[in-house]
Write a structure and sequence with these properties.
The protein has 124 residues and is an alpha+beta fold. It has a single domain, classed as Riboflavin kinase-like (Elongation Factor Tu (Ef-tu), domain 3, Beta Barrel), CATH 2.40.30.30. The protein contains four helices and seven strands, in the order βααβαββββαβ. Strands 1-2-6-5-4-7 form a six-stranded antiparallel β-barrel. A hairpin with a 3-residue loop joins β4 (72-79) and β5. The model has no long low-confidence stretch (mean pLDDT 91).
Length: 124
């Protein structure tokens, strides 16, 4: 699946969770990289929600963390045809359904100059 979306500012909560050893170790083991402690948030059109929800519901990639933290499903993805990473689906989230959270080893806003309103594409 390949979709376009708009970069938006998140709530800043991912940095805390992505700095926890149990998440970091699992992502490193399963994806081959240590994620930057933060996500690039991308708003996608609601027309894609049905298909995205099918992918999320059938996703077998799951991190079960320590007590008190939520599980996270993830699927490998590529941003703008070249940036390797993953889309994460936290069990506990305050985002709307049409927000996708992309993780990568880099701080993408700094490395690639992404700003709110930029259109990007995700392939997964």
């Amino acid at each position: 699946m390949k979709i376009d979306g708009e970069v938006t500012t998140g709530l800043g909560k991912a940095a805390f969770f992505l700095s926890k050893d149990f998440y970091v170790n699992e992502f490193q083991k399963n994806l081959g990289f240590i994620p930057f402690p933060g996500t690039l948030n991308v708003i996608v059109s609601e027309e894609y929600l049905s298909e995205i929800n099918k992918i999320k519901n059938n996703c077998q990639n799951l991190i079960q963390p320590e007590e008190g933290f939520g599980s996270v499903k993830y699927i490998e993805a590529k941003l703008n045809d070249k940036i390797e990473g993953a889309i994460v689906f936290p069990a506990k989230t305050t985002h709307e359904e049409n927000y996708l959270e992309f993780i990568s080893k880099d701080k993408l806003r700094d490395k690639y100059g992404f700003e709110d309103g930029d259109i990007v594409n995700l392939e997964f």
